[in-house]
């Protein structure tokens, strides 16, 4: 059995693996796709000490860094369930899609999250060519340009307020008749001179020219009228879904499906820790996930020295 088994090979899982392996304990990483979301990222420019890199390059470096240590990497393996130990210090079972099982004295869950898609023509085609999901990451690419934010909940309105300070004009497109964000955010949004709010509008298409986003189409749900707004960027902000469905009721999750963790990365299940975008941690960013991964691994080590057999 492993002493620490990490589920997920993104920044959180890789950091956890490096920290665990450096304690000299038997460490495994099981991941569906090593690297995680950064594989889908074009440019990364907000990781301290790495002024600029690309997603695929950073993903390859994460894997190389983990391979520098004695870590079993089980890539392209999907985890489908977790069975807690019978008593603290006992073996936790991790079930795999292929029918196999892995046993470990502690587990770090680092399965990340995925952005909900709006599923309109143009979204897939222009991903990273004007269609974006992370204002903290990609906002600066649209400096001085016109953009739209799809979604008028807290994340959409926060993104619009953030972008309004960088870009020329922001169009906020909300499906429902009213913005669903907190009132203080809505008031702030309405106070900004370079924001237009379109409520009760259904996004129908993201148009492109020469391989880049050039306009957004939406339809009024009350009158049926159609509008085309010329712009260069579309931020989709209709939710981030944690990859935690496989846990069922075994580990406590928030109403959004995020694994509930304390400041040490501990979950409600003894020996099971969690880190990164799959947890309740605020701000879903590489540096935040990597920090949380190291915290979870150190907490797992602390758990092991307190709960190991005499
Ligand atoms: P993830 O990166 O999501 O990794 C999750 C891992 O778990 C993967 O290996 C996945 O295959 C695996 N996994 C999931 N489910 C299972 C399962 N059931 N069984 C086995 N393995 C599983 N952040 C920044 O800081 N800067 C940026 O510039 C930036 N740009 C971004 C651009 C895009 C397009 C996207 C989508 C995100 C961007 N982010 C950026 C956010 C950043 O990528 C995430 O915050 C970060 O990757 C989270 O790391 P994580 O390890 O928690 O999860």
TrEMBL record:
The keyword RNA-binding does not apply. Its cofactor is FAD. Keywords: Disulfide bond, FAD, Flavoprotein, NAD, Oxidoreductase, Redox-active center. Coiled coil: none annotated. Residues 2-293 form the FAD/NAD(P)-binding domain. Homodimer. Belongs to the class-II pyridine nucleotide-disulfide oxidoreductase family. This is Alkyl hydroperoxide reductase subunit F. The lineage of its organism: Bacteria, Pseudomonadati, Pseudomonadota, Betaproteobacteria, Burkholderiales. The gene is ahpF. The chain holds residues 212 to 521 of 536 of the full protein.
């Amino acid at each position: 059995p492993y002493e620490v088994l990490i589920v997920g090979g993104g920044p959180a899982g890789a950091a956890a693996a490096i920290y665990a392996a450096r304690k000299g304990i038997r460490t495994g990483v099981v991941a569906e796709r090593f690297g995680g979301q950064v594989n889908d990222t074009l440019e990364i420019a907000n990781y301290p000490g790495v002024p600029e890199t690309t997603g695929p390059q950073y993903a390859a470096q994460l894997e190389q860094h983990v391979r520098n240590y004695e870590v079993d990497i089980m890539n392209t393996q999907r985890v489908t369930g977790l069975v807690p130990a019978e008593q603290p210090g006992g073996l936790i079972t991790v079930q795999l899609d292929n029918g196999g099982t892995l046993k470990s004295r502690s587990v770090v869950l680092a399965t990340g999250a995925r952005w909900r898609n709006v599923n309109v023509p143009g979204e897939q085609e222009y991903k990273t060519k004007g269609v974006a999901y992370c204002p903290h990451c990609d906002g600066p690419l649209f400096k001085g340009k016109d953009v739209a934010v799809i979604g008028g909940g807290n994340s959409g309105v926060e993104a619009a307020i953030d972008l309004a300070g960088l870009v020329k004009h922001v169009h906020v497109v909300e499906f429902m008749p009213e913005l669903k964000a907190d009132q203080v955010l809505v008031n702030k949004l309405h106070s900004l001179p370079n924001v237009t709010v379109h409520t009760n509008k259904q996004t129908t298409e993201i148009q492109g020219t020469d391989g880049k986003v050039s306009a957004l189409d939406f339809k009024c749900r009350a009158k049926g009228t159609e509008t085309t707004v010329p712009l260069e960027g579309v931020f989709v902000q209709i939710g981030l879904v944690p990859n935690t469905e496989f846990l069922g009721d075994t580990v406590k999750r928030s109403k959004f499906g995020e694994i509930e963790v304390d400041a040490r990365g501990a979950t409600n299940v003894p020996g099971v820790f969690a880190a990164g975008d799959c947890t309740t941690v605020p701000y879903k960013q590489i540096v935040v996930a990597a920090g949380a991964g190291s915290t979870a691994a150190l907490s797992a080590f602390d758990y092991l020295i307190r709960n190991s057999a005499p």
